[in-house]
Amino acid sequence: MNGANGCYANFIPAPRKVMSDEQPNTEELHVPAFEESNSAAANFVVVGDTTDSTENVHVSETTKEQETMLDIHVPQATHTWKDFWIHLGTITIGLLIAISLEQSVEKLNHLHLRHQLEEDLRAEAVKNIAILDHNYHSIDNYMAWASGLRDTVNTMHASGGKKKLPYPPRPDIPLINLTSPSSSAWTTAQGSALVDLLPREEAKMYDRVYYELKLLGDVQVMRSDAGREETYFLARFAPVTLAPLQPDLSLMSVEQLDQFSALVTNDLVATRGLRNRLDVLCVAEKTVLSGSTSEDAILSNLKASSAVSQKTTAHDCSSQ
What we know:
This protein is mainly alpha-helical. Helix content is 69%, strand content 0%.
């Protein structure tokens, strides 16, 4: 018992006076069971707080992700006519701005396409002038040779076929060959409706230029037909090989010499007509390069060029 009493003596304080006003010293109290219970409870509270904190953090992060993914603006309710008209006006102005921007972009694109087309047409004019220069020299070479051929035939015809003259050697093909001017830029523009981007007067000017080019092609076909008839006639008096014909004029009768002279004359007239068309196309192409934008400018330049050509003969396009 003493051992037990001694054990309890450590936990039970000494008795005090009942009527004493002194308050008990709580610091001297030592109740292990109560402290352990409180400690366990404290540990329980801490664990609970940690769990709640983790859940709160998880919910907060989930909420942030949803706010990032879904950016929804709830329109404010319009309670008055003023709010309604302000809201409607804002929408209308926004639509007008969007339409204006779209039309501006489209207009700038059309302007870019128009400038590109004009550059292509001017580049084609430069190319065609170089082609015309070559054709002028080729035609001059051919007409000089054909004129000599006709003189030879006429001399033999005048002698009644007694004079036997050789057939003048034909110039090499590169010296008399003609190249067709280009019309690809204009043809492409017509096929893709890019012509509609040009101002009306400018489009008429280019249409006139390529109309003159078409007439040149028509005259070239007529000249080719005349040359073909001449070739068929000469083939009767020369071996037909892959080489250029070398007919024997002495085999022709007086009547045949007269027929051949007429064929050569027709060829010369057709070639001269082709050269005249070169003059017209040259004026049209140079009008384009001068920066003119109307058909009237071409017509005016043609009149001036016609007056000059009656006095002098041009031998190329660049110098006109």
